[in-house]
Specification:
Elements (H helix, E strand, L loop, with lengths): L7 E5 L4 H12 L3 E6 L2 H10 L7 E5 L5 H15 L4 E4 L14 H29 L2 E6 L12 H21 L4 E8 L5 H6 L15 H13 L8 E4 L7
This protein binds NADP nicotinamide-adenine-dinucleotide phosphate (NAP).
NADP nicotinamide-adenine-dinucleotide phosphate binds next to helix 1 and helix 6.
Length: 243
């Protein structure tokens, strides 16, 4: 497996949950890191709590649903570190509601965050990676994107679209040393999860979650995989029931 030491990594949704866990493991692997979310104070707190030296990290407060902000993220990372090796599209949102109660604005926010922001990142990253001669994108999807899930219609369809979109673009660029992977976790123990399952009546649900660290370890595996090997789509599920 390749070493991550000195690589430049960008993680969106780095202020909490899975993104914070991903940042932690990349930092432990000696990467330089750009932390992205809307809440700048929280991003800075994460970097400080993890003890990342200030010259090794960059915080960019940005709303990834705005195209010019995604451009700003990429430009800022390249300005500070000279390149981007790995970009993790982790930020995502979901709402647990029947479709008739889902407002159009909520529907749009879910698709704009979970799908369109990834498209914006591709528009910036693919030309950059072509100039660099290589680069990797890891998109965090969801098992909910593998099937329709009741009361998660907007969320699960946005993630299903993300899977197919990622695979299509990955096939466009695979002969240019550009790797695009999708990781689809099952329910994970974060604030998003409690939001998505708030209305769930199933008593067993809480016992069947992945931890943030388990999902982050899978991201590190994808990042460390040899340059020649491309894992296109990976599901990660809990094996043991936690009480
Ligand atoms: N938790 C689960 O059960 C689960 C399962 C499968 C897949 N996933 C996926 O894993 C990813 C992370 O989920 P999570 O559970 O860690 O969620 P979370 O705890 O709710 O965190 C979401 C992160 O995304 C950021 N974010 C949201 N909208 C943004 C925007 N417009 N611009 C920039 N940043 C934005 C948030 O920061 P700010 O609010 O500060 O912007 C936050 O850092 C998502 O893609 C989610 O769909 C989660």
């Amino acid at each position: 497996m390749r070493s991550l030491r000195g690589k430049v990594v960008v993680v969106t949704g780095a202020s909490r949950g899975i993104g914070e866990g991903i940042v932690r493991l990349f930092a432990e692997n000696g990467t330089r890191i750009c932390l992205i979310a809307r809440n700048k104070k929280r991003l800075t707190a994460v970097a400080k709590e993890l003890g990342i030296p200030s010259k090794e990290y960059l915080v960019v407060a940005a709303d990834i649903t705005r195209r010019h902000m995604v451009k700003k993220i990429v430009n800022a990372a390249v300005r500070k570190f000279g390149q981007i090796d790995i970009f993790v599209n982790n930020a995502g949102v979901g709402i647990h509601k029947p479709i008739t109660e889902t407002a159009e604005k909520e529907f749009d926010t879910i698709f704009n965050t979970n799908l369109k922001a990834v498209y914006y990142s591709f528009l910036e990253l693919i030309p950059l990676f072509r100039r660099q001669g290589e680069g990797q994108i890891i998109n965090i999807s969801s098992l909910a994107g593998r099937m329709g899930v009741a009361n998660l219609a907007a969320y699960s369809s946005s993630k299903a679209a993300l899977n197919v979109f990622s695979e299509a673009v990955a096939l466009e660029v695979r002969n240019e040393n550009i790797k695009i992977s999708v990781l689809a976790p099952a329910s994970t123990d974060t604030g998003l999860m409690s939001n998505l399952s708030r209305r769930s009546k199933s008593p067993s649900r809480a016992a069947k979650k992945l931890t943030v660290a388990e999902v982050a370890e899978a991201v590190i595996f994808l990042a460390k995989q040899n340059t020649n090997a491309w894992t296109s789509m990976t599901d990660i599920r809990p094996l043991l029931v936690r009480k």
